[in-house]
Design goal:
53% of the residues lie in helices and 3% in strands. The protein is mainly alpha-helical and 512 residues long. It has 5 domains: 179 residues, no CATH class; 107 residues, no CATH class; 51 residues, no CATH class; 62 residues, no CATH class; 54 residues. The chain has a 3-stranded antiparallel beta sheet. Helix 18 packs across helix 19 and helix 24 runs parallel beside helix 26.
Length: 512
């Protein structure tokens, strides 16, 4: 149990809290730090969306819990208002648990045109105030958000440190130490400074109020933007959008150089981000794109309040349109002929069969009564699942893998220089890592072979000691104990008890 884990400061990243813990306890080894806190030596530090928050919350006072840490000390709140509930539920579970599975991909961050910051950023004046108030400084989460380029409190652009927060060079939780060395201030276009200040303020407000807005699915977002564009008189007719007018509003408000700074300058191509955000939403857009569009469309109103207002309106319209899903004599009078016909079809057929029977009917309903169609399809007949076809002869595949493993083992027996024969190493020699790991229950012989012949740490260390002993005898040399261990790639601290007994036996043999 960790008893001296530091409590987070206001708006402090979890990453920063862990870095301060390492400084307070003089921990220099990244593996030792993660093993002590998470019982795992192979974690990669993540500054924006860290996992294991249930475990960290257990080290803190009782008024802290995982949801509080997520909402106040991670960057998940900037995604929350623009992601479906199912994605956010997954994200909360991923941050609380210990199985971190491609959350950045799930949230659309990896594919986003808005790139994350690569180095930690800070405001020197804020650090001076932190030092006076707390006696130490920390990394604020807002500083590490793309779009927050300007400190709203001290009216100056942020400074960029030389400490990696993103990319393959992340190996340790770095505190502020020596961050001022080799740091440089962000250079912003003087004409865009006011827009940067405005955007930084919007991001601060988004972090503070993001939890009050949720959406069920992406279709709500599509309806939200359609209602907004309709109210602003930005439609060419009943359904088509006047993209040229929308583009002009965005450019006039923010300016081309400001948009280009965030790689959002392409507003004219057929699949540009601005056209796609106004069309049907099939994927998530970044917080930055939403804020920029909402502010440009209604500059006189707070974009976050605008967004909440139209989300509520779109949700109400969806509920009203999807209400008459029961079919009886009374409701029948409110349905169109197409709706009545489709209702009869799905009482006897599955949705797929009904679509194949009358594709034109389905297309008309999808264009004109989409929400009603999606709702009533849930009452359709469910066709029985077709029996699964066994496409792979797993018994033959199991025997084949086992024979290959026997051959690989025989080749490795005489090779004292080979890596440790772990299960992963042996599977990689087969060239079917994913296939085997996902189908253990179909491969009993392969599984039994790997459990029997996978090399333990004891055996691997003994093999390395044997290799050095043979080399010593061949060259007719005598290695002192420390040199012998170093030649074997080992140390006194790393030797297992079994390997130590073997090493002591070798030492006695040499001295005799």
């Amino acid at each position: 149990m960790i008893s001296n884990f530091p409590a987070p400061y206001p708006d402090e990243l979890i990453y920063s809290v862990i870095a301060r813990y390492a400084v307070h306890n003089g921990i220099l080894s990244p593996k030792y730090l993660t093993e002590e806190l998470f019982n795992n030596r192979n974690l990669t530090p993540t500054y924006d969306l860290p996992s294991h928050l249930d475990r960290l919350a257990s080290y803190l006072p009782d008024h802290y819990n995982a949801p509080i840490l997520i909402n106040q000390h991670t960057l998940l709140p900037i995604y929350q208002p623009f992601q479906p509930d199912i994605v956010m539920t997954y994200a909360m579970q991923a941050l609380r648990g210990e199985q971190y599975q491609s959350l950045h991909t799930k949230l659309g961050k990896n594919a986003s045109r808005i790139k994350s910051v690569s180095f930690f950023r800070f405001c020197p004046h804020c650090w001076q105030e932190q030092m006076q108030q707390y006696g130490e400084v920390y990394w604020k989460r807002s500083w590490q958000i793309t779009g927050y380029e300007y400190c709203t409190r001290h009216q100056q652009s942020l400074s960029v440190s030389s400490i990696f927060c993103n990319g393959i060079d992340r190996k340790f939780y770095f505190a502020h130490l020596n961050a001022l060395k080799e740091s440089s201030q962000l250079v912003l276009n003087p004409q865009d400074v006011n827009h940067h200040i405005e955007l930084a303020g919007l991001i601060e407000e988004l972090l503070a109020h993001s939890t009050s807005t949720t959406i069920k699915n992406f279709s709500i977002l599509s309806d939200t933007y359609f209602l907004l564009l309709k109210d602003r008189d930005l439609l060419l007719n009943r359904k088509n959008i006047n993209y040229e007018k929308v583009r002009q509003l965005v450019v006039d408000y923010w300016g081309e150089s400001f948009l280009q700074y965030y790689q959002l300058g392409d507003l004219s191509s057929e699949n540009c981000w601005l056209k796609n955000i106004c069309r049907k939403h099939r994927k998530a857009f970044s917080y930055l794109e939403h804020l920029i569009v909402l502010r440009a469309l209604i500059p006189e109103q707070n974009p976050i309040e605008t967004y909440k207002q139209y989300i509520d309106l779109a949700s109400m319209n969806l509920e009203e349109e999807a209400a008459p899903v029961c079919v009886n004599n009374k409701v029948d009078r409110t349905l169109s002929e197409d709706q009545k016909q489709w209702t009869i079809l799905i009482q006897k057929n599955s949705v797929k069969q009904a679509r194949q029977y009358d594709a034109a009917l389905y297309a008309r309903l999808y264009r004109n009564h989409k929400n009603w169609l999606l709702k009533i399809n849930q009452t359709a007949v469910i066709s029985p699942p077709s029996p699964l076809k066994q496409r792979i002869d797993w018994r033959a595949r199991d025997r084949q893998f086992t024979k290959q493993l026997i051959k690989i083992r025989d080749e490795l027996l005489d090779d004292l220089n080979s890596p440790q024969w772990t299960k992963k190493f042996l599977i990689k020699q087969l060239g079917h890592v994913s296939l085997i790991e996902k189908n253990w229950h179909f491969l009993p012989l392969t599984k039994a072979f790997l459990e029997l012949y996978a090399e333990s740490v004891d055996c691997y260390q003994i093999r390395r000691l044997t290799r050095t002993y043979i080399r010593q005898q061949t060259e007719n040399k005598y290695y002192p104990q420390s040199v012998f261990l170093r030649e074997s790639g080992l140390s006194e601290q790393r030797l297992t008890p079994e390997a130590r007994r073997f090493f002591n036996h070798i030492e006695r043999e040499i001295k005799q």
